[in-house]
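Annotators were shown the component list below and the corresponding predicted structure, then asked to write short factual statements about the assembly.
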Amino acid sequence: MTQCTVQLGDRAYPIEIAAGLLGQTACFDVLADRPRLLLTDQNLARLHLPRLQATLSLPDDSCLIIPPGELQKSWDQAERLFDALLARRFARDGVLLTLGGGVIGDLGGFVAALYQRGIDFLQIPTTLLAQVDSSVGGKTAVNHPRGKNMIGAFHQPIAVVADLDTLKTLPPRELRAGVAEVIKYGLLGDAAFFAWLETHLDALLALDPAITAQTIAHCCQMKARIVAEDEREAVGGGVRALLNLGHTFGHAIETFTGYTEWLHGEAVATGMVMAADCSARLGWITPDIATRARDLIARAGLPVKPPAGMTVEGFKDLMGHDKKVAKGQLRLVLLRGLGAAVLTADFDPAALDATLAAAVA
Amino acid sequence: MTQCTVQLGDRAYPIEIAAGLLGQTACFDVLADRPRLLLTDQNLARLHLPRLQATLSLPDDSCLIIPPGELQKSWDQAERLFDALLARRFARDGVLLTLGGGVIGDLGGFVAALYQRGIDFLQIPTTLLAQVDSSVGGKTAVNHPRGKNMIGAFHQPIAVVADLDTLKTLPPRELRAGVAEVIKYGLLGDAAFFAWLETHLDALLALDPAITAQTIAHCCQMKARIVAEDEREAVGGGVRALLNLGHTFGHAIETFTGYTEWLHGEAVATGMVMAADCSARLGWITPDIATRARDLIARAGLPVKPPAGMTVEGFKDLMGHDKKVAKGQLRLVLLRGLGAAVLTADFDPAALDATLAAAVA
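Structure shown to annotators:
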């Protein structure tokens, strides 16, 4: 088993990574005899819940099961969950467990952050995307019709338990969406890891056990380091903002498509292609690096162009809602090299226009 | 001008207390040239907004004005405010100002805590209750039909500006409700201050300038000290929980009356009478202290009995939702002496039953 730690002083927590963890009580020792409720969706309840219930001796009425899908990450669904917790008289000493991908983790973390002004929660991510990214770092949120993740809180879990076996039941499209975030770590901060991925992409897509474990551990270590340095994503632009490579473009795509047609990782994939394209047009990276980024993303079976119907103006309007806007200026995470991302508002807007025009052509 | 500081490391902030502050730019220097929006209600907009707009050069479309009343402290109203902020493309570098009493401060702070995962806010409390209690310490929340303040966050303001002139426009009933929280500080932790209040209550109710300033500064200093010691109200029962003297009984009254008939301070007043009564029945304080508490609360024109129609069972059911419940056990803030409150589950339930029976008789 691999374990890494997110170093956040008195809120430090472990990330456990191995196959078979849902069947092992040891990694849930942190729960002791505290009251617990579990949040998951209907798909995961079918696939993994019985095993986890047996491990944790969790009765059915301690499991909150919601429909699957990004539309559940809503203000309204959060309200229904508060009602469910209050109806069960769940108290501040309880722990909320979240079994699922990014939607369940973000929504459950959000509910835990706000319920009675904050209760503990434990993340059990079941998708590659959640295991390498969204379950680590304490970002929780729900979506707003005007923008993704616009309402949220920073609330760190007490532990993350990533069971590699859960990836075997992922639909291939979701696995690829997770690979997008894996590629992101290479592009933004680790050229050697990017090159390693160019070699091992097929093994990762085939879920080769050793390659998968190595990939997830490497990404979690990178994320843990970044989060420890800049827990709350400093407004001036701390290192954590670099994790949003591709996200400003990607969020515009997700908003345009109503959060339903594109997976988050797919939108980020196209967003990274666009960020690399813009960086190349600015002369900040060589065209060769932008091509390598696009090629690896395409090889992973991910989209490299935004959906039909998006326009340059539509993109810019949706990007104007981004959380990285400061003093009315759009800031983007762009590349100054392979593995060298920067957050900046200091770029020639003509390059962005050209990237958008080429992308929607 | 009196200034005290809430000592919270890199989140430390000043509380400014004086008459006339709404007309002075100096105490708003912290805003610099940052974007700002102001939240207030229709009553306060009429009474104080023009003056503040002039001081801050705040245009009308930067003011969000909602109806007055506790019913606005809702999940739905928070959602409408998020929509208003997003429609204005308010960014993470902005500051939300809240001009109002506890409802505006709690709601505005809640919105600031969650908007784009947290933006800065500045509290301008306009009621005695908000100036001595709710504006200091970073507790933000909205109500839930099943319980008051059940959904919330800890989010510290960047400054608190308490203009004593705003108290002159308070309805007498609201002033008295604020006096309840003032009495609370004496009862829970400062016998000398309680005795001082017995002497100066009439001057405070008449808003004698020196007595009022002294009262508010004293309460803010007590609260700042308690918050610095236990910012997030430790689940095990830190010192901050003592500020909830009277609140478990009081929240039950507020929930029973639908948050509309009783003011928060009125419910807390009756709750403190009941907490003192229960403490006396347990033999933890002399009957004389319970009588002094009841007498001072009655002299302030505050209710000392719950509303008609409440029953012992109804009380216990509503109290079971309290945030201080742990391991299924009801915990209460009770008195071990005048100025010596404790949070405890270790009391004879027969005493509580007797208190409830006597109160609803």
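Statements collected:
1. Chain A touches chain B through 39 residues (CB under 8 Å).
2. The radius of gyration of chain A is 20 Å.
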